Structures are given as structure tokens and as C-alpha cells.
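Review session, final week

We close the course with one last complete record, chosen because it touches almost every idea we covered. It is Precorrin methylase, a protein from Streptomyces chryseus with 636 residues. Go through it on your own first, then we will talk.
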Amino acid sequence: MIGLISATAAGAVARDRLAAAWPGRTRVYDGPVREAVGRAFAECDQLVCFLATGAVVRLVAPLLSDKASDPGVVCVDEAQRHAVSLVGGHGGGANALALAVSGVLGCAPVVTTATDATGIPGLDTLGWPVEGATAAVTRAILDGAPVTLEADAVWPLPPLPGNVAPAGTSAGTTTRVAPGASAAGGGAPGAEPAVSLAEAAAIASVPVGGLPGAMAATVAAGVVAEAAVAEAAEKRSPDAPAVVRVSDRVLDLGEREVVLRPPSLVVGVGASKGAPADEVSGLIEETLAEAGLSVRSVAALATVDAKAEEAGIVEAAARLGVPLRTYAAEELARIDVPNPSGAPLAAVGTPSVAEAAALVGGGELLVPKRKSAPEGRVAMATCAVVRKEPRGRLAVVGLGPGARDLLTPRARDEIRRASVLVGLDQYVDQIRDLLRPGTRVLESGLGAEEERARTAVAEARAGHAVALIGSGDAGVYAMASPALAEASDDIDVVGVPGVTAALAAAAILGAPLGHDHVSISLSDLHTPWEVIERRVRAAAEADIVVTFYNPRSRGRDWQLPKALSILAEHREPTTPVGVVRNASRPDGTSRLTTIAALDPATVDMMTVVVVGNTAAREIAGRMVTPRGYRWQTEGS
Ligand code: SAH
């Protein structure tokens, strides 16, 4: 719930606009602002205060306790010019909220957390639990100081700047963090470090008592104020090397160390009917602690289908905040385990529940089956712990037809989430500015599809987070199929749809795809012409609107006229045809013509050609394919 607090009439108007835009998500807190802020702070996940930042700083300061649990606070000024992420930028979601509020009210978001400003992912935004000296290590990363990465395995982490390197590799240790994307491919040596922003990180990390004043200075100036920089400089920590560890083991952390907890462990659980949740949870926690494993690396609990509703197990999973995976007894019975037993075989039909359920899909059995040991009664729970191999991540991302605002937010996020980017050089150019420092870019020229697909899959199989990019939609005459034809089930694959050329062109032409339509590529490079011709003929006979991709190139000029002549056997010469070149790009053009009048010379490889069906019309200079005769008459 988002609490809304205002003091003035103008504030109340803005507040009501936000409340109307987000029904069910917001709650208005009336009355004296001190009391309203207090109540909202206690009851809500986030606050939007239509008050001066100074006032909010004073009101909120005494209420702050911990950045992991404090609500995120956003301030909107009287004139609604700025939405300031004031407190809880990452953990409280205030940065995202400031952006969302700006979207509704039309103001400018103000985000001052250093990692967002420099394009480096905050350690606390990776989606994994992080423990230790987060602020100090973040600051070292931003400073461009050498930071050692000690990972137990290759995990699909987002890109880390060049100064964050595995122990023993000096590569990049002198590389400065370049704000923005110019460091793509390993960092731009010599680029100025984001000193002032690094100091801002230090400010954000000072204890609560020191927070409000310094933050207010940062916000008020819009950039880091001189005084704040000076204050941060005094707080410089000694030069112990900073370390980022990635491990599921319980570790003694040094003063300048953090550990990221990867989701590497699966705990198999068995329980007799009615086993108390405390017994199940207690067993899991004790088992992990004794094995020196972090409970925060538990990715899931696993058990047999018959126990899917067992309250103690369900509750134990809920307490850990992880899913409960269940498997059929027959599947578990097939898994080789060190400690099979007769009891579960009789009860649920498999000689092992805990060990077998944890071992589904493979992994290393770190802790064999253990029983709970409740005092004075028989044990009701068992558990076993398995460590899973990390799975790499392959995102297949469509960039859209060219215009930046037709690249979806999800595509943007996936591009910035990946530490390895694979794509055709001209597509990489399209989004180079979005890349985070440290992204490894593997680009190749036209025609190397198979190689790109293989490279992307191989990088993902090595455990990395990979984005394979393509224009339009990456699944339409593009990289998704060759890549997924290569990929095995040991990687995670995420598809991000993009606006394909047919849709981008249709939006320019009018409404040519209003009824059944098909896309046909006229490239006979990989498909024999007979197959293409058969499909064109089928579309012609079935009276389907056709979008031709790859319609014509210098060496391939007879295919388009031939395809049009096949369509003309079933459609009037006056049937509208839309020719769109470079849709959504600055030099984009479009023209509306007819089957008879189309001049093939106006068509090249940057073009799609949309041919209407027999019902398609040109209306007011636009191409319109009616939804259908019956619908048009009945619906009007
Ligand atoms: N995956 C892409 C298509 C790749 S095939 C997509 O979904 O759009 C390449 C063909 O797509 C080009 O020959 C051209 O016919 C078409 N195309 C791609 N982008 C285009 C654009 N911006 N404008 C017009 N046609 C485009």
C-alpha cells in the first residue's frame, strides 16, 4: 500500500490524481501532517509526500530504523516539478516509485543513489540476499578501486565493472568506472571516476543519525553538494581491499566484504501427517547451520506430491519465502539415494522423499537425510540438502523496429541484466548506450547467424547471463530459433517479444492487418523458391493479407514481382499495397500503391511490403482491411 500525504490545496489535487490513477494501491492520510506521516510510515510499504523535502526529512528522520524494512519515501513539490526519491531508493523501492509517480503527474524523477546514476547495479538490487559491508563495497566499486570477486561457481550475475575481478586477475584493477555505457566491453581505461557520485554512496551509507541532513543537501542541489562531498571524504575507510563473495556457505566476513547468496540449495523435506511447522523449520535451520550453509541460499523446498498440502512443510517454505516443489512418488522412486528406507515406501510409495526430492534434476548431496529430534516423542520430519549447479541464463531479446521508444522496458532491463551481449554489430550499435559498464560484447557481422547462436548458448552454458539480441522480434526470421535449436535444458531461457517489422509498418500504413494475415519471407537463401511460391499461392487462394519480409535485394530482384503476380491472380490490380522502408527510423518512408502500380525499384532489404486482401481499401490515404463483411454490417 502507498500512503499519500499532503498539506496544501495544490498538494491535495496532485494527491487525488495519483489516488485516482492507482485505485486500490493508495491510501490517503488526512489530518496534521506529522501524525499522518507517522501513521502512513507504520502502515504502508511506501509513502508519497506532497511536501517540501526539508519537511519530510524532519518528519521521517525519527521514524527510520533499517533500510531493509523502512518504507520507501518519495517527495513531490508544490508545483509538481519533481518526484524525489528521498529514502529507501533500492530496498524501499523509492527510485522506482519516483519514476512511476513522474509518469502519472508529468514531473521529473530525481534519483540520487549512486549506482543508478552510473549504471552500475547496486549490490542490493541483484535480486539475491546480500550480507556484510554493502555500502563500503559499493563505494569501492564506484571509486574504481580494486575489488576482488570470489565466487564459488560461475553465476549469471549482471555485468560488474572492470575493477571488480576474480582474485589473481589484475585485469581491470586500474580501470576506472566509467559512468554510462562507454565502458562496455571491459571498461574505458582512464575515464574519470564518478567521484562525486561515489561520495554520494558514502553519504547514503552513514548511520541513520547522519542521514537526513546529508541526504537533504544532495536532493536540494540535484547533484552532490560540496559540503556533502567534504563530509563523505572525512568518512573514508581504511584501504583494506574490498571483496565481493558469492557463496552459499556461512563465512566470516572482513570489514570490507560482502557476500551475495545465490539460490543454490534445495532442501528435500519429508514429514509424517501433522508434523508441526516448528519441527520442520527447526530441522531445516539446524541442518543448514551444522553444515555451515546459509539459509538465505535456499532456493526451494522439495517433497513428494502426497505432501503438497502438509501444513508443516507448506508453512516451513512460507517462512523461508521459497517455493515448495513436489514430485510424483514414481519419479522419486527412480532416483538413486544413499539412504532408502521402508517407511516412506509403505506410506507414499517411494523409498526416499527428502533425498530423492532434493536430488531431482541433479546436484550434489551435501547433507544426507537427517531426522528431527523432538524431545520426548517420535521424530516427524526429515530433510536433506542438495547443492545445484548454477544455471546460465539466455535472454532472447527483440529490439523493435528501430525507434528507441519502441524498445520495450523489459527488453531494456534484459539488455542491462546481461553480462554478455551477443548480436549483429549494427543491432549492438542501436543499444550500445544502454549497456552497463563491464558488459562483454560479442558482436559479429551479417551472415554469422549460426555462430552467434552457438556463441550465445555456449556462454549461457558456461553459467553467464547472456542477452542475444535481434531487431524487431528476435523470434521472427531471427536468432531465437537457431539459438533454441542449439540450447539444452541446462540453461534458463527468457524470451522478450519485440515489435516486429510487420506491426511497425502496419501502424504507419493504417490498419492493413485487421483481418487474417501472414508473413512470408522472400529470401530463398535458406528456403527453396518452390516452397516460398507454394506458400504465396496458398495465401493468394485463401485471400489472406500478406507481409513480405526480405522482399528484394541487389542480387534477388525477380522474386517480388513473381510473388505479386501470383497474388494478382486472385486479387484486383487495384488492391492496395503498402511499402514501408525503415519503419520507425529517422529516415523512414512509406507509400501506398496498388498491386499493378508497385515499382519494385522502391523496395529493398530495409523494406516490408504489405499486400491487402480483396476487401482491403485505401481510405483517406490509409490502408484499411475490414474486420469482415458480416461484422461490419451487424456491428454498425
Ligand atoms: N526480426 C525482424 C525481421 C528480420 S528479417 C523483425 O521481427 O522485424 C529482416 C527483414 O525485416 C528486412 O529485410 C525487412 O524486410 C524487415 N524489416 C526489419 N526492420 C524493418 C524496418 N524497421 N522497416 C521495414 N522493414 C524492416
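Two points worth writing down before the exam:
The chain has four domains: 2-112, 265-387, 393-501, 503-635.
Residues 503-635 form a domain with the Methyltransferase, Cobalt-precorrin-4 Transmethylase; Domain 2 fold (CATH 3.30.950.10).
Good luck, everyone.
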